[in-house]
Amino acid sequence: MRLYKAEGVVIRGRDYGEADRIITLYSRQHGKVDAIAKGVRKPKSRMRGGVQLFTFSSFLLYPGRTLDTVTQCEIIEPFTLLREDLTRFAYASYLVELVNSLVPERDANEKLFFLLLASLHLLTREDPEVSVRFFEIRLLSLLGYRPQLQNCVQCGKFVPDKSIKFSVRLGGVLCRDCSPEDKSAFSISKGALTVLDQLTKIDPRRIGRLKISVPMRQELERMLCEYILYRAERQLKSLDFIFNLRRLVTEKETHKEIN
Ligand SMILES: [Zn+2]
């Protein structure tokens, strides 16, 4: 077996044994790869920085039966801010957990790889919530799960601006006539759908120009997160983390106002 190269983002990592770390990379060349990095928790290890969560590095790997072994790694982009700022850390954790839970092993997808990289960059400088919505809708499209947002997912008819419902189970909007098809479908505004459509087309460098109201953010979050959870068929720890963090921040602010 031969050494191979991979450029990838560390999307999961846990300490193992005395000084090792087991990581999952999402790499440009090979998709998701599990590997062990030996001795990297020793203070003098040269690979220490390159195997940290969210870091984009160039790896040299040796294939193994269950786990490959990292023999060399060099940092390309450390994404330090994503580990230092708690809010950004929470959102970045969600991004990588989505890749972990929705993307199959060893399935290279260059578009998805560049989407992940672009979104991590966005998270370092743009509104984290908007950056994550951008990632979600594009990830869904790349995986073939893009929700049907223009015409009714049931009958195919054009859905007028009012009384639009979104069905998580059917994966799209429902017109008034078809809304009884899914009792759990919830209302969604035309405005929110327009923003979502913009997110699928926008150049990520222009994302800061999108102005999204608070109610619309809530609509988009509910719609995308519920749909993703349905697709993932499991709970996402990082999503609970985001919600708990938000609750803490709100409580703190309320407390400040009272005192
Ligand atoms: Zn319909």
Question: What's the CATH superfamily of the largest domain, by name?
Answer: Recombination protein O, C-terminal domain
CATH architectural label of the largest domain? Up-down Bundle
Distinct bound molecules: zinc ion
N-end to C-end Cα span: 66 Å
Distinct helical segment count: 7
The oligomeric state of the chains shown is single chain
Inertia-based shape? globular
**Roughly how much helix do the residues carry, as a percent range?**
40-55%
| Helix and strand run | EEEEEHHHHEEEHHH
Q: Would you give the CATH topology of the largest domain?
A: de novo design (two linked rop proteins)
Strand content: 15-25%
For the largest beta-sheet, the strand count, sense and barrel status come to: 5 strands, mixed, barrel
CATH class of the largest domain: Mainly Alpha
- The pLDDT mean sits at 95
Backbone CA Rg: 20 Å
Structural class of the secondary structure composition? alpha+beta
Low-confidence spans = none
Number of DSSP strand runs: 8
The largest sheet has its strands arranged as: 1-2-3-5-4
Number of structural domains: 2
InterPro entries: ARFGAP/RecO (IPR037278), DNA_rep/recomb_RecO_N (IPR022572), NA-bd_OB-fold (IPR012340), RecO (IPR003717), RecO_C (IPR042242)
Protein name: DNA repair protein RecO
Domain DNA replication/recombination mediator RecO N-terminal: 1-79
Pfam family, one: RecO_N
